[in-house]
Amino acid sequence: MGETHEAAPLRALLLYYSYTGQSRTVLQAAGEVLRDNGFEVQEAAVELTDPRYAKPFARFPMRRVWPDMLSVLPAQVRRADARVAVPDVVREGGFDLVCIGSPTWWSTASLPIRSFLRSTDARKLLARRQFAVFVVCRDSWRGNLAAVRRLAEWQGGRYAGEIHLTYPGDQLRSMLSLTSYLGSGRYRARYAGVRIPVTNVQPEQLDRVRDFAADLAERTRAEVIACRANSM
Ligand SMILES: Cc1cc2nc3c(=O)[nH]c(=O)nc-3n(C[C@H](O)[C@H](O)[C@H](O)COP(=O)(O)O)c2cc1C
């Protein structure tokens, strides 16, 4: 394992927005596997800086769960953009693989990741590059995946696959468990008198992420070797 012949090592970027740290944990698990497979891995967290939206997400746990969650609903419905910041490594570019991770917010990609994916920085990062999508949410992953994939392809990226992780329980119980956690930062067995399941990404789900990342590493290497051979 390691470098592609005598050529430069493959480079991967872990690009994510993560409010409670779930997407970050998932991408970091993938990043470890990519490193073990010879990739040079860098990390870039998207930061929500827009004064119209940032305040509720600048602290955890939330101060008032429902008003704080609802604060971004109109922007999500309108598919609005917000001001975001990314570290300089994003503008360096030259990545062979970009892993894009974000939570679902109101059934679609979160405001910060959508805003970044619509930017000119995203075009420079993704044009002609492979990208994989990592979706983390309570249950509604499809709209998030579709939005991230569509935007990254619109910026010229080449889709290399997806993995989505959802949380157990029926609609009511998984929602109670999530809001209990967002409002307290703690895991509880019961909320409002109702027994609730676990929320957030579980260790066995990270094993699935590692398998996905190992496969992604292999496919990216094959693709890059083929591209380099074609351009010789
Ligand atoms: C504002 C907001 C809206 C959310 N909307 C949804 C949703 O529509 N569907 C869903 O399955 N999960 C939803 N969630 C749950 C998140 O996807 C979940 O908390 C995720 O673990 C957060 O990942 P992160 O820690 O990387 O931010 C929402 C969370 C927040 C904070």
CATH architecture: 3-Layer(aba) Sandwich
Domains (count): 1
CATH homologous superfamily designation: Flavodoxin domain
Number of strands: 10
Shape by Cα distribution? globular
- SSE class: alpha/beta
| Strand content bin | 15-25%
CATH class division: Alpha Beta
* Average pLDDT rating: 95
Please compute the radius of gyration using only Cα atoms.
18 Å
Tally the helices: what do you get? 9
User: Gap between N and C termini, in Å?
Assistant: 23 Å
- The H-and-E topology, N to C, reads as EHEEHHEHEEHHEHEHEEH
**How is the main sheet built?**
6 strands, mixed
| CATH fold assignment | Rossmann fold
Portion of residues within helices? 40-55%
Spans of at least 5 consecutive residues whose pLDDT stays below 50 are none
Ligand set: flavin mononucleotide
Detail the topology: elements first, then pairings.
Elements: E1 11-16, H1 22-36, E2 40-45, E3 47-48, H2 65-70, H3 73-78, E4 84-85, H4 89-92, E5 97-105, E6 108-109, H5 111-117, H6 120-126, E7 130-136, H7 142-154, E8 158-165, H8 171-184, E9 190-191, E10 194-195, H9 203-230
Parallel strand pairs: 1-2, 1-5, 5-7, 7-8
Antiparallel strand pairs: 3-4, 5-6, 9-10
The structure holds flavin mononucleotide (FMN).
Flavin mononucleotide is lined by residues 18-23, 69, 72, 103-107, 136-140, 178, 200.
